[in-house]
Write a structure and sequence with these properties.
The complex is a heterodimer of chains A (301) and B (174).
Chain A: E1 2-3, H1 9-36, H2 38-52, H3 57-76, H4 79-114, E2 124-132, E3 140-143, E4 156-158, E5 163-170, E6 175-179, E7 186-192, E8 196-201, E9 209-211, E10 224-227, E11 239-245, E12 251-255, E13 264-268, H5 285-300
Antiparallel strand pairs in A: 2-3, 2-13, 3-6, 4-5, 4-13, 5-6, 7-8, 7-10, 8-9, 10-11, 11-12
Chain B: H1 2-24, H2 39-50, H3 57-70, H4 77-96, H5 101-125, H6 133-158, E1 172-173
Helix pairs in contact in B: 1-3, 2-4, 2-6, 3-4, 4-5, 5-6
The chains are: A alpha+beta (301), B mainly alpha (174).
Chain lengths: 301, 174
């Protein structure tokens, strides 16, 4: 039978075995911690990431540039066609721009007539994407703004066009954004124009699935998908994408955000929505009094 | 001899660091659509089957734990699986040291797929939200197919010479 015949190898063998067992136990403890006390483990992870990834930027930046150049090269090949198409699109856009300006004026006039109080526009902070997930199994990106810039957990991130995901971890100068395609991402959406509510569930493909649609027959391919604001995770009315059907007929969402090229992300600073808890609060007699007196003042003016 | 060993270890660390940085670089076209092959596992196994004494278990644990942290994987689980696979591979080294590449590749395919499926099963048992079964199969297949490429890369680290006779992993048949 095979046998070790070296004198010190017996010692090294035993030493090796002890080291192996120790490292396995250590990792298992870490894994159990991750499973049982997930928020704390994610905090530890972010501390590690926060410490190391910004230091990689001297390699990461040239790598990113190289990859972008490679992508651009691919588009050089059909630049002529692209140019023609773009010219055509510019023509159309000019038309739309004109239309938009007219509508905007009309809209402003109507709003003024109705004395509508508008929601505050959400202010945002823009961050640069530092790193991607190394494996295709958990979909996250790391951005270069964090607690230092006042970023908080749960805020929405967009790429300027559509929703990309939300902040799931904040380090000192980095923050983790869970993409909509991640398996643990579930978003309450509303499908326009029918207004049906549904849940969009990421499943590691580029097209997250729509679940729990209340009246599925009222939803067709091409319908717009926006956040519904239910559950107060995302603000209401952010564009996500449009409905598509896969080969099995299941409804999925084609995302508006350009997931292939996530370079800059806007993090929307969300103001917590006030909740009305006591019914008394609604009938604030003092406020009504104050309002009416103000009205009188304005009338007098 | 000892210095050469440490040189190889440092080189392994450098190459794995480069691989990690390349994998987490943004806009990596690999990370969307198809799952990324497990390059580091391939590299580790390739080196183990050429020179089992180069990679101590601590080095493997550090590299893979670091990956778990950076890749947003469940912390520790994949490291445990890789440690078990690589230590098992070290004990089997003497069977495969004289066999040809294809035989070793078969054995390594077995190791990789059993590792990936145990990973999937453990995560499913612990009710961690997971992607579907097919993606794991594709992941295992891609990783197995990547192995020959990474095997060539391993020559960079451990060179072409055969395993020295003084290693504790060299077993003699009596």
């Amino acid at each position: 039978m095979a046998r070790n015949n070296h004198e010190d190898s017996n010692y090294t063998g035993r030493f090796r075995r002890v080291l192996t067992v120790i490292s396995i136990i250590f990792c298992l403890i870490l894994f159990l911690l991750w499973r049982l006390d997930n928020p704390r483990a994610e905090t530890i992870r972010l501390a590690v990431v926060d410490k190391f990834v910004p230091n990689f930027s001297f390699i990461l930046t040239p790598l990113t540039t190289l990859q972008n150049i490679a992508l651009d090269f691919r588009s050089y090949s059909n630049i002529f066609e692209l140019n023609n198409e773009l010219n055509k699109e510019i023509q159309q856009l000019k038309h739309w721009k004109e239309q938009a300006i007219q509508w905007e004026a009309k809209y402003a006039k109507l709003l003024d007539l109705n004395k509508v109080k508008l929601d505050l526009k959400l202010p945002y902070t823009t961050g640069i994407v530092l790193a991607d997930t190394g494996s295709g199994f958990r979909q996250h990106v790391l951005i270069n703004i964090g607690a230092k810039d006042g970023i908080k957990n749960g805020w929405a991130a967009t790429d300027g066009l559509g929703l990309v995901g939300r902040i799931t971890g904040v380090g000192k100068s980095t923050a983790l954004v869970m993409l909509l395609t991640d398996t643990s991402s579930k978003v309450a959406v509303s499908i326009q124009p029918s207004g049906e509510k549904a849940i969009m569930h990421g499943d590691n493909t580029m097209f997250p699935a729509l679940e729990l649609i209340s009246k599925a027959d009222r939803v067709g391919a091409g319908d717009r998908v926006i956040t519904s604001g239910d559950g107060q995770v995302f603000p209401k009315g952010l564009l996500i994408g449009s409905v598509v059907k896969d080969s099995t007929g299941r409804k999925r969402v084609s995302l508006s955000a350009d997931y292939k090229r996530l370079a800059f992300l806007r993090v929307l600073r969300m103001i917590p929505i006030e909740t009305i808890q006591e019914s008394k609060m609604l009938i604030g007699t003092e406020i009504i009094k104050k309002d009416s007196s103000e009205d009188k003042d304005t009338l007098n003016d | 001899m000892i210095n050469a060993l440490w040189g190889q270890r440092i080189f392994y660390l450098l190459i794995s660091l480069l691989l990690i940085v390349w994998l987490i670089a943004p806009q990596n076209s690999l990370s969307h659509g198809l799952p990324t092959p497990e390059f580091l596992l391939c590299l580790t196994l390739a080196i183990i089957f050429r020179r089992p004494d180069v990679l101590p278990v601590i080095l493997i644990a550090i590299v893979f734990l670091f990956c778990d942290f950076l890749f947003n994987r469940p912390i520790g689980l994949w490291t445990v699986i890789v440690i078990i696979i690589s230590e098992f591979a070290k004990t089997q080294y003497w069977r495969y040291k004289d066999s040809n590449f294809i035989t070793t590749w078969f054995f390594i395919s077995f190791l990789i797929s059993s590792g990936i499926f145990s990973y999937m099963i453990i995560l499913n048992v612990l009710l961690v939200p997971q992607s579907n079964f097919w993606q794991y199969i594709i992941w295992a297949l891609i990783t197995i197919l990547t192995y020959p490429v990474i095997f060539c890369l391993s020559f960079l680290i451990v060179g072409f010479d055969k395993q020295s006779q003084h290693s504790p992993f060299m077993r003699k048949k009596i």
